[in-house]
Amino acid sequence: MGFLANSLLSFGAAGLGTTAYGLVEAQAFTTRHLELKVLPPGSSDLRVLHLSDLHLTPAQTRKINWIKSLAKLEPDFVVGTGDFLAHQLAVPAVVEAMDELMNIPGAFVLGSNDYFAPQVKNPFMYFDKNRKVQAAGDPLPTSDLVEQLTDAGWLDLNNKQGSISINGVKIHARGTDDPHIRKDDYASVAGAFDNNSFALGVTHAPYKRVLQSFATDSADLVLAGHTHGGQVCLPFYGALVTNCDLPQNQAKGYSEFGESKMPMHVSAGVGTSPYAPIRIACRPEATLLTLTANR
């Protein structure tokens, strides 16, 4: 009994220690830097700030202040890949956090958490790749969020597309609403991208069906989020789950998709669900992508 009691105590202590570490790491915000040679030949460099999965609540002042600080990076373009909200009153918090960033040209798509308030979930369900994903929860003020971002001049790419020129680079951007809850409608934007433009694809959840559509239309780069990089990872192994049908080795960062090797960047995101506020071996992040000419 003594050995068993000691073993249980040790196991419990290890679990508490891991949880405590996860709570700390979830506040260890970091900015990653990556250079990608994806722009048309002769293009000037373009600095793109990729933000995803803020999951903001009004009380998260540390996160809000860190997001504010990202304006000092002086990006040329900002792309938000969804899940800005995590609370009924979060829209003002998003505006506060992104106030200066919203003065910079940008584009966005939405995630399921921009439509529905977070709920308590069994974390082991994420290991079931055949589970049925349902759109559920109390509705959030989605239209208020969209209004704030579009009033700032950002491109709404939820099953929409648009063009913008920055630093002499013409960007033809198109996106989908959240594939995780089947709100994507790529057919509404499908077709060839504009000639002599940088073809940018944006989506929240990087499901293969959507990525293949971007690849078929020869996107130069696709930006996505949703995965949280796995959120709980094992050192020297990586993500245990992706919460979509991508393999774990593409849960975050740069990778290439399909036979065409389409460039793709999946953000590990800034936040977590308020009901699972931990990260392990997967720090919360934003990424400054320096896009350069491919020749």
Could you explain the architecture of this structure?
GO terms for molecular function: UDP-2,3-diacylglucosamine hydrolase activity. It holds the Pfam family Metallophos. One of its GO terms (biological process) is lipid A biosynthetic process. This protein is of the alpha/beta class and 295 residues long. The chain has one domain: Purple Acid Phosphatase, chain A, domain 2, CATH 3.60.21. 20% of the residues lie in helices and 24% in strands. The chain has five helices and 14 strands. The chain is globular, with a radius of gyration of 19 Å. About 2% of the residues have low confidence.
Key structural traits:
295 residues; alpha/beta; Purple Acid Phosphatase, chain A, domain 2; 14 strands; 20% helix
